[in-house]
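Supplementary Note 3. Input sequence used for the single-chain structure prediction.
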Amino acid sequence: MTADRLEKLRPAIKALEAMPTVPAIIHPLISMLRQPAEQVDMDKVVELVAYDKTIAAQCLRMANSPLFGRRQMETVRSAVMALGLKRVQAILLGCCLNTTVPANKWVLDPLIFWRHSLGCALVSRKMAQLIGYADPEKAYLAGLLHDLGILVNSLVCTEEFRVCVRAATEGHMAFDRAEAEHLGFTHCQSGKILADHWRLPDEVKEVIEFHHEVEAATTARALVSLVHLSDLLCRVRDLGYGYYEAMGVNFTGDAAWAILVQHHPPLGSIDLARLSMDIDGAMGEISAVVDAVFRTQPVA
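The predicted structure, written as discrete structure tokens, is reproduced below.
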């Protein structure tokens, strides 16, 4: 990694929150995301949703969609209660970050990016529940934000990142490898800078930084490994980045598997085929959330 290059970008990354397109609700939302789910004040969630009429309309539309089989919801409060905290947080975060990235700076198709991010969040929470990980909601948040650096790279080095994406797509290689070759750093390092600036939980920051290098993790090795495996599962189940990655995946031979089994032995008996089927079954919910975020917003 070219440390000097990344250091030169650090001020630009920290300045992202000063962009005029950053919504006013981003800081209250980040503060809420740092809290355990049981401590979140749902009245505050309703306030955040109601602050923006577009977000409110999206939550109402999703709550009334056939996917959730709900009776007709007519108020923001009823929609929030029907959808639940995690779905609403995903809609809020998606709307906020999508607004932050101007259409001409989206290097990846935002629909693809958010399908992968939300897919990883759902799989991380499911896997956490199956193996007895202590905080499935933190696993969800870490999965949702693990690729934060992709948005950072899209904003602070747009054209160079386009070259990376083109190289990854044409060479059927992983993003982090293409970034290392063409940028000298990866979305893991740039995402960690913004995560530090936003004061995200330490474990989530470690996931953002090391989800492609699990053995380098120190304080949250189990969570990093869990999200790493969830990320791989999504990428081999058509929830990747919109192109074919030529990668040989051996989950039980992966370093992350060994680390996670050490911390959570029930992983050794997990049914990966069943978990893959669960991913397929979650596609309806994933698409519904992504559509709720982007249906009324322009896509690059």
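Residues 296-300 have pLDDT under 50 and may be disordered. The two ends are 30 Å apart (CA to CA).
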